[in-house]
Specification:
Blueprint lengths: L7 E6 L14 H16 L3 E6 L7 H6 L4 H25 L4 E5 L8 E2 L2 H9 L3 E5 L9 H12 L4 E5 L4 E2 L11 E2 L1 E3 H6 L7 H9 L4 E5 L5 H6 L6 E4 L3
Parallel strand pairs: 1-2, 1-6, 2-5, 3-4, 3-5, 6-10, 9-11
Antiparallel strand pairs: 7-8, 10-11
Amino acid sequence: MGEFRFKRVLLKLSGEALMNTQSYGIDPETLTSISRQIKELHEDEREIAVVVGGGNIFRGMAASSSGMDRATADYIGMIATVMNSLALQDALENEGVFTRVQSAIRMTEVAEPYIRRRAIRHLEKGRIVIFAAGTGNPYFSTDTAAALRALEIGAEAILKATKVDGVFDSDPVKNPEAKMFERLGYIDVINLGLQVMDSTAITLCMDNALPIIVFNMGVVGNIKRVLQGQPIGTIVTGGE
């Protein structure tokens, strides 16, 4: 077993990751699998925050391109992330893990408002913190929210969970000859137009030297392997 490299991390999950093979919504088995993997890290006394997207329920960009007001579409997308966050909270608590949802949009009946110092205190007390509703502002993605929250809480890395093994030079689903990168610089991601995170999120990470590790969430145990420093997925750093 390798030694854990990180004490406090932020896990970024796409909404699509919760669907599995479904075309919409949340697959209960997938949600349970993710929760159990997070629980395993929690039992090893790691401090874990999570940001979940909302694309399995509503995609603001798609609605905007179809004629909906962009800000309105983005707010609906933020609400979708709250729904996913509450579902993940329920799954984690069914596994016996204390969890708090903090929302950037005030919904006091179902979630705490986002307060940075309170979030850090929850982590120090061994609670999982799920950040919902993005940044609370339209025109910003949940990728950017993940980078922002990770920096605010002092996370040592962003773990970007995907359906493939890492970052490839082309779509590995369509191209079996696609090459996976083991390591990339932030500038490489931007210059090559690689779909790791959006450019705002990448720039935030670059300016603050926050590493991003992209890995396959579908392989059970991969989150723990990443934290142990095993060579899983693609790491995006300053390229030293």
